[in-house]
Write a structure and sequence with these properties.
The protein is of the alpha/beta class and 267 residues long. The protein is built from nine helices and seven strands; from the N terminus they run ααβαβαββαβαβααβα. α3 links the parallel β1 and β2.
């Protein structure tokens, strides 16, 4: 699959040097109205305002990401530094995905996300981030051609899923597990097609996969096929092959015609 340039990308240049890991996330209270929104019934006027805000947040993401080429989303921890072996592996995966013609999409932050975006840029590909406002501010990493910043995790996850032909998860924490299992559930329930969901790092993910097979499948809370849909590898080459094969053969990947941007649609 030859690489096709994305039509007229919106380019935003982040400032500052490469991001590093942090141990302070969650130690500052979140945005008050977001926390209030998730604390049960509120005044009707408040909930109407939040619903309108969420609508515009979603539409802003749709309009910004509408013009991307075919994407592969890379999940993973924000806490790994440049010296870590998983950072290097994510960087290699980003390079190979870009060479295969994919836009590399991540959560836009540091660590694994930065590494995948960095690899894509180094290979001459297109690099995109769906960033999130956190109590301890997560700045967009410096290897993004374009990014959108969201206030709600569920809106961010919607964008990371909507535009991708494959999902690659390197080692991570709660956020990465959340993204893995939401994607797995969407595939299981046929809300999205059976796109590849690939875990990278066999040793890291082995206890999780054992739990799926030995406890969930054994207890019949999921079917065997549900566990088998989650692939695992240590190879960047295999990651790209799986993404390429699924996009090109199984799902008939196409780049589509160029679409004229319209200012009144925030494009």
């Amino acid at each position: 699959m030859s690489q096709t340039p994305n039509p007229d990308p919106v380019v935003e240049q982040p400032q500052g040097g490469p991001a590093t890991s942090t141990t302070n996330w969650g130690k500052v209270p979140p945005v008050p109205e977001i926390r209030q929104f998730l604390q049960g019934p509120q005044k009707r006027s408040f909930e109407l305002g939040r619903a309108a805000g969420i609508f515009f947040e979603i539409m802003g993401g749709f309009r910004k990401l509408h013009f991307l080429g075919p994407c592969v989303t890379v999940f993973g921890s924000a806490r790994f530094t440049e010296e870590h072996v998983y950072y290097a592996l994510a960087r290699e995966i980003g390079q190979q995905l870009a060479r295969a013609g994919f836009t590399v999409m991540t959560g836009g932050g540091p660590g694994i996300m930065e590494a995948a975006n960095r690899g894509a840029k180094e290979a001459g590909g297109y690099s995109v981030g769906c960033n999130i406002v956190l109590p301890q501010e997560q700045k967009p990493n410096p290897y993004l051609d374009s990014w959108v910043t969201f206030r709600h995790f569920f809106v961010r996850k919607l964008m990371l899923v909507k535009y991708s032909y494959a999902f690659i998860a390197l080692p991570g924490g709660f956020g990465t597990l959340d993204e893995i299992f939401e994607t797995a559930t969407l595939i299981q329930t046929h809300k999205i097609q059976d796109f590849p969901l690939v875990l990278v790092g066999k040793e890291y993910w082995r206890p999780l996969l054992d739990f799926l097979h030995d406890r969930l499948v054994e207890s019949m809370t999921i079917d065997g096929i549900d566990a088998e849909r989650i692939l695992v590898t240590d190879s960047a080459d295999e990651v790209v092959r799986l993404a390429h094969d699924a996009a090109l053969r199984q799902f008939g990947l196409f780049y589509g015609p160029k679409v004229k941007r319209r200012w009144f649609l925030w494009e």
